[in-house]
Protein backbone atom coordinates (compact mmCIF):
# COMPACT_ATOMS: atom_id res chain seq x y z
CA UNK A 1 0.00 0.00 0.00
CA UNK A 2 1.17 3.50 -0.70
CA UNK A 3 1.99 6.34 1.66
CA UNK A 4 0.40 9.06 -0.43
CA UNK A 5 -2.69 8.53 -2.53
CA UNK A 6 -4.54 11.28 -4.31
CA UNK A 7 -8.11 11.17 -5.49
CA UNK A 8 -9.63 11.62 -7.88
CA UNK A 9 -7.08 10.35 -10.38
CA UNK A 10 -8.48 12.77 -12.95
CA UNK A 11 -10.71 15.81 -12.66
CA UNK A 12 -12.19 17.91 -15.42
CA UNK A 13 -13.89 21.23 -14.65
CA UNK A 14 -14.90 24.47 -16.33
CA UNK A 15 -12.90 27.64 -15.93
CA UNK A 16 -14.11 29.58 -12.91
CA UNK A 17 -15.16 26.50 -10.96
CA UNK A 18 -13.39 25.27 -7.86
CA UNK A 19 -11.28 22.11 -7.92
CA UNK A 20 -10.77 19.91 -4.90
CA UNK A 21 -8.19 17.17 -4.74
CA UNK A 22 -7.66 14.84 -1.82
CA UNK A 23 -4.65 13.01 -0.50
CA UNK A 24 -4.51 10.20 2.02
CA UNK A 25 -1.48 8.77 3.71
CA UNK A 26 -0.75 5.96 6.11
CA UNK A 27 2.02 6.79 8.56
CA UNK A 28 2.52 9.75 10.85
CA UNK A 29 4.19 12.71 9.19
CA UNK A 30 6.06 15.89 9.96
CA UNK A 31 4.67 17.73 6.98
CA UNK A 32 2.74 17.30 3.77
CA UNK A 33 3.56 19.18 0.61
CA UNK A 34 1.60 19.78 -2.57
CA UNK A 35 3.27 20.10 -5.95
CA UNK A 36 2.10 20.89 -9.46
CA UNK A 37 3.59 19.37 -12.59
CA UNK A 38 2.78 20.56 -16.06
CA UNK A 39 3.00 17.86 -18.68
CA UNK A 40 6.59 16.75 -19.17
CA UNK A 41 7.93 19.47 -16.92
CA UNK A 42 9.41 19.78 -13.46
CA UNK A 43 7.65 19.93 -10.12
CA UNK A 44 6.58 23.26 -8.72
CA UNK A 45 6.21 23.51 -4.98
CA UNK A 46 2.82 24.90 -3.97
CA UNK A 47 2.33 24.63 -0.23
CA UNK A 48 3.86 22.91 2.78
CA UNK A 49 1.58 22.25 5.72
CA UNK A 50 3.02 21.01 8.98
CA UNK A 51 1.50 18.27 11.06
CA UNK A 52 0.44 20.76 13.73
CA UNK A 53 -1.37 22.97 11.21
CA UNK A 54 -4.94 22.45 10.03
CA UNK A 55 -5.29 24.90 7.18
CA UNK A 56 -3.08 27.03 5.00
CA UNK A 57 -3.75 29.49 2.19
CA UNK A 58 -1.68 30.78 -0.67
CA UNK A 59 -3.46 32.94 -3.21
CA UNK A 60 -6.22 30.83 -4.77
CA UNK A 61 -4.95 27.69 -3.04
CA UNK A 62 -6.28 26.35 0.22
CA UNK A 63 -4.84 23.26 1.85
CA UNK A 64 -6.31 21.45 4.82
CA UNK A 65 -4.78 18.70 6.88
CA UNK A 66 -6.60 16.25 9.13
CA UNK A 67 -4.02 14.14 10.91
CA UNK A 68 -6.70 12.09 12.67
CA UNK A 69 -7.94 10.92 9.27
CA UNK A 70 -4.47 11.03 7.70
CA UNK A 71 -5.79 13.11 4.84
CA UNK A 72 -5.28 16.45 3.16
CA UNK A 73 -7.16 18.39 0.55
CA UNK A 74 -6.08 20.98 -1.98
CA UNK A 75 -8.70 23.45 -3.12
CA UNK A 76 -8.08 25.68 -6.12
CA UNK A 77 -10.68 28.42 -6.31
CA UNK A 78 -11.79 30.22 -9.45
CA UNK A 79 -9.78 27.86 -11.64
CA UNK A 80 -8.11 28.98 -14.84
CA UNK A 81 -7.05 27.08 -17.94
CA UNK A 82 -3.44 27.61 -16.80
CA UNK A 83 -4.16 25.50 -13.72
CA UNK A 84 -4.33 22.44 -15.97
CA UNK A 85 -1.62 20.15 -14.62
CA UNK A 86 -1.04 17.13 -12.41
CA UNK A 87 -1.11 17.77 -8.69
CA UNK A 88 0.82 15.62 -6.25
CA UNK A 89 0.91 15.39 -2.53
CA UNK A 90 4.13 14.28 -0.89
CA UNK A 91 4.81 13.33 2.67
CA UNK A 92 7.90 12.82 4.72
CA UNK A 93 7.38 9.76 6.84
CA UNK A 94 7.90 10.58 10.46
CA UNK A 95 10.48 7.85 10.84
CA UNK A 96 12.94 8.93 8.20
CA UNK A 97 13.85 11.18 5.35
CA UNK A 98 12.25 9.24 2.57
CA UNK A 99 9.89 11.64 0.81
CA UNK A 100 6.95 9.84 -0.76
CA UNK A 101 4.80 11.12 -3.61
CA UNK A 102 1.32 9.99 -4.45
CA UNK A 103 0.35 9.09 -8.03
CA UNK A 104 -1.24 12.49 -8.60
CA UNK A 105 -4.50 14.00 -9.77
CA UNK A 106 -4.68 15.16 -13.39
CA UNK A 107 -6.68 18.36 -13.45
CA UNK A 108 -8.07 19.68 -16.71
CA UNK A 109 -9.62 23.14 -16.67
CA UNK A 110 -11.68 23.75 -19.77
CA UNK A 111 -12.05 27.29 -21.12
CA UNK B 1 14.28 33.89 -7.25
CA UNK B 2 16.89 31.16 -6.73
CA UNK B 3 16.18 27.90 -8.46
CA UNK B 4 17.59 24.43 -8.88
CA UNK B 5 19.10 23.85 -12.30
CA UNK B 6 19.84 20.59 -14.06
CA UNK B 7 21.88 19.65 -17.09
CA UNK B 8 21.45 18.27 -19.62
CA UNK B 9 17.73 18.63 -20.21
CA UNK B 10 17.77 15.48 -22.34
CA UNK B 11 20.35 12.71 -22.46
CA UNK B 12 20.27 9.81 -24.86
CA UNK B 13 22.61 6.94 -24.16
CA UNK B 14 23.12 3.34 -25.17
CA UNK B 15 22.49 0.48 -22.80
CA UNK B 16 25.56 -0.30 -20.74
CA UNK B 17 26.99 3.21 -20.94
CA UNK B 18 27.70 5.40 -17.97
CA UNK B 19 25.81 8.66 -17.57
CA UNK B 20 26.28 11.57 -15.21
CA UNK B 21 23.37 13.86 -14.50
CA UNK B 22 24.23 17.22 -13.05
CA UNK B 23 22.41 19.51 -10.70
CA UNK B 24 23.14 22.85 -9.13
CA UNK B 25 21.06 23.15 -5.95
CA UNK B 26 20.01 26.44 -4.44
CA UNK B 27 23.12 27.94 -2.93
CA UNK B 28 22.21 28.11 0.77
CA UNK B 29 20.54 24.71 0.82
CA UNK B 30 22.12 21.89 2.76
CA UNK B 31 20.04 18.85 1.78
CA UNK B 32 20.00 17.40 -1.70
CA UNK B 33 17.89 14.74 -3.32
CA UNK B 34 17.41 12.77 -6.50
CA UNK B 35 14.08 11.44 -7.69
CA UNK B 36 12.98 9.74 -10.85
CA UNK B 37 9.70 9.59 -12.71
CA UNK B 38 9.13 6.90 -15.29
CA UNK B 39 6.78 8.16 -18.01
CA UNK B 40 3.22 8.20 -16.78
CA UNK B 41 4.13 7.03 -13.29
CA UNK B 42 4.63 8.73 -9.99
CA UNK B 43 7.74 10.44 -8.70
CA UNK B 44 9.98 8.03 -6.81
CA UNK B 45 12.60 8.88 -4.23
CA UNK B 46 16.12 7.70 -5.00
CA UNK B 47 18.50 9.23 -2.49
CA UNK B 48 19.04 12.06 -0.05
CA UNK B 49 22.41 13.62 0.70
CA UNK B 50 23.57 15.78 3.57
CA UNK B 51 26.94 16.76 4.95
CA UNK B 52 28.72 15.00 2.10
CA UNK B 53 27.15 11.66 2.66
CA UNK B 54 24.06 9.71 1.76
CA UNK B 55 21.36 10.10 4.39
CA UNK B 56 18.89 7.65 2.96
CA UNK B 57 18.39 5.70 -0.21
CA UNK B 58 15.57 3.70 -1.69
CA UNK B 59 15.60 0.17 -3.06
CA UNK B 60 15.91 1.65 -6.54
CA UNK B 61 19.27 3.18 -5.66
CA UNK B 62 21.38 0.07 -6.09
CA UNK B 63 25.10 -0.34 -6.73
CA UNK B 64 24.70 1.04 -10.24
CA UNK B 65 23.91 4.47 -8.81
CA UNK B 66 26.16 6.88 -7.01
CA UNK B 67 25.99 10.52 -5.99
CA UNK B 68 28.66 13.06 -5.46
CA UNK B 69 29.09 16.68 -4.55
CA UNK B 70 32.40 17.26 -6.33
CA UNK B 71 32.62 20.96 -5.47
CA UNK B 72 30.66 23.56 -3.57
CA UNK B 73 27.92 23.90 -6.13
CA UNK B 74 27.32 20.74 -8.16
CA UNK B 75 25.48 17.61 -7.13
CA UNK B 76 25.71 14.68 -9.52
CA UNK B 77 23.98 11.38 -10.07
CA UNK B 78 25.97 8.70 -11.87
CA UNK B 79 24.51 5.57 -13.37
CA UNK B 80 27.40 3.21 -14.11
CA UNK B 81 25.88 0.86 -16.63
CA UNK B 82 22.53 2.02 -17.88
CA UNK B 83 19.63 -0.33 -18.52
CA UNK B 84 16.57 0.22 -20.66
CA UNK B 85 14.47 0.52 -17.52
CA UNK B 86 16.54 3.48 -16.35
CA UNK B 87 14.78 5.59 -18.97
CA UNK B 88 12.92 8.23 -16.97
CA UNK B 89 12.88 11.86 -15.92
CA UNK B 90 15.39 12.46 -13.15
CA UNK B 91 14.72 15.32 -10.81
CA UNK B 92 17.15 16.92 -8.44
CA UNK B 93 15.82 18.77 -5.41
CA UNK B 94 17.26 20.70 -2.53
CA UNK B 95 16.02 22.02 0.78
CA UNK B 96 17.35 24.45 3.29
CA UNK B 97 16.74 22.17 6.21
CA UNK B 98 15.72 18.66 6.94
CA UNK B 99 12.68 17.67 4.91
CA UNK B 100 10.63 17.32 8.06
CA UNK B 101 10.52 21.08 8.28
CA UNK B 102 11.57 22.49 4.91
CA UNK B 103 10.15 22.74 1.43
CA UNK B 104 11.94 20.82 -1.28
CA UNK B 105 12.56 22.74 -4.47
CA UNK B 106 12.86 20.74 -7.65
CA UNK B 107 14.84 21.30 -10.78
CA UNK B 108 13.28 21.02 -14.24
CA UNK B 109 14.54 17.48 -14.69
CA UNK B 110 16.75 15.56 -17.08
CA UNK B 111 15.01 13.21 -19.45
CA UNK B 112 17.18 10.11 -19.78
CA UNK B 113 16.53 7.84 -22.73
CA UNK B 114 18.40 4.54 -22.82
CA UNK B 115 18.38 2.78 -26.18
Task: Characterise the protein shown here.
The complex is a heterodimer of chains A (111) and B (115). In chain A, a hairpin with a 2-residue loop joins β6 and β7. Chain A contains no helices and 11 strands. Chain A has 111 residues and is mainly beta. Helices cover 0% and strands 59% of the residues of chain A. The radius of gyration of chain A is 13 Å and the shape is globular. With 115 residues, chain B is mainly β. Helix content of chain B is 0%, strand content 49%. In chain B, the strands form 2 sheets. In chain B, strands 2, 4, 5, 6, 9, 10 and 11 form a 7-stranded mixed β-sheet that branches. A 4-stranded antiparallel β-sheet of chain B has the order 1-3-8-7, with no helix packed on it. In chain B, a hairpin with a 6-residue loop joins β7 and β8 (75-79). The termini of chain B are far apart. Chains A and B meet through β4, β5, β9 and β10 of A and β5, β9 and β10 of B.
For this entry, give a set of tags:
heterodimer, A: 111 residues, 6-stranded mixed beta sheet, 5-stranded antiparallel beta sheet, B: mainly beta, 4-stranded antiparallel beta sheet, 11 strands
* Rg of chain B, Å, rounded: 13 Å
Major sheet characteristics of chain B: 7 strands, mixed
- How large, in whole angstroms, is the Cα Rg of chain A? 13 Å
Largest sheet of chain A: 6 strands, mixed
Number of helices of chain A: 0
Strand content of chain B: over 45%
**What is the succession of H and E elements of chain B?**
EEEEEEEEEEE
Shape of chain B: globular
Fraction of residues in H or I helices of chain B: under 10%
Percent in strands of chain A: over 45%
Helix and strand arrangement:
The complex is a heterodimer of chains A (111) and B (115).
Chain A: E1 5-7, E2 10-14, E3 19-24, E4 29-37, E5 43-50, E6 55-58, E7 61-66, E8 71-76, E9 85-93, E10 99-101, E11 105-110
Parallel strand pairs in A: 2-11
Antiparallel strand pairs in A: 1-3, 3-8, 4-5, 4-9, 6-7, 7-8, 9-10, 9-11
Chain B: E1 5-7, E2 10-13, E3 19-24, E4 31-37, E5 44-50, E6 53-57, E7 65-68, E8 75-79, E9 88-95, E10 105-106, E11 110-114
Parallel strand pairs in B: 2-11
Antiparallel strand pairs in B: 1-3, 3-8, 4-5, 4-9, 5-6, 7-8, 9-10, 9-11
